[in-house]
Structures are given as structure tokens and as C-alpha cells.
Write a structure and sequence with these properties.
five-stranded antiparallel beta sheet; Jelly Rolls; six-stranded antiparallel beta sheet; 13 strands; 38% strand; 2 helices; mainly beta
């Protein structure tokens, strides 16, 4: 019996805001289930023409309607993130907060779940948040700099000027006091990344 090996290739898609990359693994299915290479550092580095050095892996678990964000860290602890979902589904939202960027103040939204297995590469200079769309959600993300409470900041996810559609009605969303208290983007200083 001949064994046929299918080539596992990951597809990368540049999103509408420069620097954001959607990583789409090829999923090989058979009677046992499926297999995929979820992360290939070499292929991603070739695609973005930059080196990546992830040093910390984080996981969060949330129930339906939980909104986390919009968070980011500043220099010298700014972070590039690679976000994925190992259980459930989220609306992942990233906001460009690089003052010198032509897309400053613009955001991009992507559905990440345990079916599509997509990952979102978020470079330094973006605020990141998500809302859970399933009963239980497990979000994993790799970062290239360690957590630093002194360098952690946030933007109000309900800032009317951002016009973010969180998909859920506001009365379905659960957000903690700290995230709710973040300033609007127009009230924020120019951060350094």
C-alpha cells in the first residue's frame, strides 16, 4: 500500500491595514480527524521579511459575551502578537495606534475559531481586543516581549469615533471596570513602539 504525503502549506493573507497578516493553515482531514501545522516560523518570517522571536505564550478562557481589550504595550516592552483560538469563536479586533501611520485610528476585525484555525499576526503599534462569540472560548497568543504592567495601556473599546461593530448588542457584552475606564483614542497621547 502506497503512502501519499500531502504537502502542508500555510497560506498568508495581508489584511487592509499594513502589517496585519492572517495565517491560514492547511487542514488535512481523514477518518481519524484532522492535522495541520498551525505555526511555521520560517514561512511566516519569509512572508513578512522580518525575524520573529516569540518568548511568552498566553492563554485566556472566557464565556459568551466577554470583551477583553483594547490592550497594548509600549516601548521598550511593545509586543508583536500571534493570536489564535483553540476552543470556541471570537471576533478579534485590532486598532492601528501608530501616529505616523496612514491608517491611524482605523481598525480591522477577523473571526477566529477552532474550525478555521486561523491566526492573526499583530505587529507592535496596534491595540488588540476580542469579544467571545461562543459559550466557552480559549484564546492563545504568542508574544515577542514579556508582560510589563508599567508599559501596558488600553483604548476604550466603545469609543464612538472608532465605530467598532462588536457584533453583539451592548447589553450582551461583559467587560471589566479597568477596560471600560480606558480613554478614547482622541484623548490618548502619542505612544512609542
Amino acid at each position: 500500500m502506497a503512502i501519499i504525503l500531502k504537502k502542508l502549506e500555510m497560506e498568508f493573507e495581508k489584511l487592509k491595514i499594513d502589517g496585519l497578516v492572517l495565517c491560514k493553515p492547511k487542514i488535512i482531514e481523514d477518518e481519524r480527524g484532522f492535522f495541520s501545522e498551525n505555526f511555521r516560523k520560517d514561512l511566516l518570517e519569509d512572508f513578512i521579511s522580518k525575524k520573529l522571536d516569540f518568548c511568552q505564550h498566553n492563554t485566556s478562557k472566557s464565556s459568551f459575551g466577554i470583551l477583553r481589550g483594547l490592550h497594548f504595550q509600549t516601548a521598550p516592552k511593545a509586543q508583536t502578537k500571534l493570536v489564535s483560538v483553540s476552543n470556541g469563536e471570537i471576533l478579534d479586533v485590532v486598532l492601528d495606534i501608530r501616529k505616523d501611520s496612514p491608517s491611524y485610528g482605523k481598525h480591522c476585525s477577523v473571526i477566529l475559531n477552532d474550525i478555521n484555525n486561523f491566526q492573526l499576526l499583530i505587529p507592535k503599534g496596534f491595540a488588540h481586543g476580542f469579544v467571545s462569540l461562543s459559550e466557552i472560548v480559549r484564546v492563545d497568543y504568542q508574544v515577542d516581549n514579556y508582560y510589563s504592567s508599567e508599559n501596558e495601556f488600553g483604548i476604550n473599546p466603545f469609543d464612538n469615533d472608532l465605530n467598532i461593530n462588536w457584533i453583539l448588542d451592548k447589553n450582551q457584552i461583559i467587560i471589566n471596570k479597568r477596560d471600560r475606564s480606558h480613554k478614547n483614542l482622541s484623548e490618548s497621547p502619542a505612544y512609542i513602539f
